[in-house]
Amino acid sequence: MATAIEIFKLLPKKNCGKCNFPTCLAFAMQLANQKVKLSDCPFVSDEAKAKLEASSAPPIHLVTIGSGDKKVEIGDETELYRHEKKFFHPTCYAITISDSMSDGEVESKLKRAEELSFERIGQVLTIDLMAVRNDSDNDTRFAEVVSRVAEIGLPLVLMSERPEAMKRAVEEASLEKPLLYAATEGNIEAMSSVAKELACPLALRADDLETLAKLAVHARETGVEDLILDLAPHRAKDLVEKNTIVRKNAIKRTFDGLGYPIILNVCDDERAVLKAMLATMKYGSIVLFDDLNPAHALPLFVLRQNIYTDPQVPIQVRAGLYPVNDPGPDDPILFTTNFSLTYFTVMGDVDKAKVPAWLLVVDTEGLSVLTAYSAGKLTEESVVEALEETSAKEKSTSGILIIPGLISRMSGKLQELSGMRVIVGPRESSGIPKLLRSEEF
Ligand code: SF4
């Protein structure tokens, strides 16, 4: 969005008050804060309108691939650095199936792709897209494999340089908004026409940014607005450089011709995972893999999860009293905080002990145990309050409260306030199973 001064320069400067503000400058300030609409001033010229509308458009175009529940949205980012606000649309990962594979190979690769799923801090981490590559040069086979892959319900990327193969596959599989990959200098005209006709997003590929910008102009002139850029970086260094140039120019609006999400194809790259990690950290929106084994997928998914969380808002779980391993009134209460990572680690360790227990999760606004204690958000009083709010002492009459070892200094006062026998637990959550299995209980 333009600043108040930039907006003011485009206003008629009549200071007539018809917008309900005494001066054009006052109106410009409200407009910059998005509290009024430009149409509130009846005297704005068409030229000024066009300029202001262009300046309020997102610097990176939002592109949707697929439809329904599993559609993915990429782009629409507003920041160069994550700490300035947050990144909004996580990098999507795709596994590629070649149409020259046998039916059996297609099935087993699909099965592997579907099994690539991990749960971490309450979120399920999976791949987001499937891609089908037209290696056979046979339109019938391509459409057949596309139809089979579409059955698993993920949005698709169709990889072919032949527009007629794309068209047939989209129509036969009744696909909505698959990504067509990729238009190049050699086929831009035909690919743009097919993308326009099928209302699909289109990827553009070129070795240099100048050519890419020309392809983008061509596609837009044909009427294709949903574009994705393949910058075709050869080395890891090129990837970081090119991705940064595109993002920087888009965000700072120094050149908006390449304000689109970026796709990276590492199908034939022996450094696929390294490049995927760089793309995840540096502005990549889609990565196309030939395959991805679980040992590589997990760290990659975790990296993505970390990059695409809001740095100013800790991930939290709901505070409350959680039963673990079917506890009864004789079983002890442990407590921890509602910071997700802490909660899931402690919950996992209590569960692993196979000993019934109650887990009291105290609301610390998503801070971990020691941070919350140091910030005064985890106090003896707040623990007692949580015990009361959850009726924990009625559900567990054992009278035993196990506290995290990191805050052992709370034990005396907490024992006094709660009237329970306080046991100082281990400093590390991994020590919980041993404690719970000990004869003390
Ligand atoms: Fe200025 Fe338009 Fe408001 Fe009049 S109506 S004061 S010209 S912004």
Description:
The chain is of the alpha/beta class and 441 residues long. It is 40% helix and 17% strand. The chain folds into 3 domains: 4-56, 3-methyladenine DNA Glycosylase II, Chain A, domain 3 (Orthogonal Bundle), CATH 1.10.15; 63-307, Dihydropteroate synthase-like (TIM Barrel); 320-437, Rossmann fold (3-Layer(aba) Sandwich). The protein is built from 17 helices and 17 strands. A hairpin with a 2-residue loop joins strand 4 and strand 5. It is flat, with a radius of gyration of 28 Å. The model has no long low-confidence stretch (mean pLDDT 93). The site of iron/sulfur cluster has 14 residues, from helix 2. Iron/sulfur cluster binds at residues 11-12, 14-19, 21, 23-24, 27, 41, 43.
Query: What's the story with the biggest beta sheet?
Result: 8 strands, parallel, barrel
Determine the mean pLDDT: 93
CATH architecture of the largest domain: Alpha-Beta Barrel
Level-1 CATH class name of the largest domain: Alpha Beta
Q: Termini separation (Å)?
A: 62 Å
Query: How would you write the strand order of the largest sheet?
Result: 3-6-7-8-9-10-11-12
Number of separate helices = 17
Name of the CATH superfamily of the largest domain: Dihydropteroate synthase-like
Gross morphology: flat
Structural category is alpha/beta
CATH topology of the largest domain: TIM Barrel
How large is the share of residues in beta strands? Answer: 15-25%
Structurally, how many domains make up the residues? Answer: 3
Extended strand count = 17
Low-confidence stretches: none
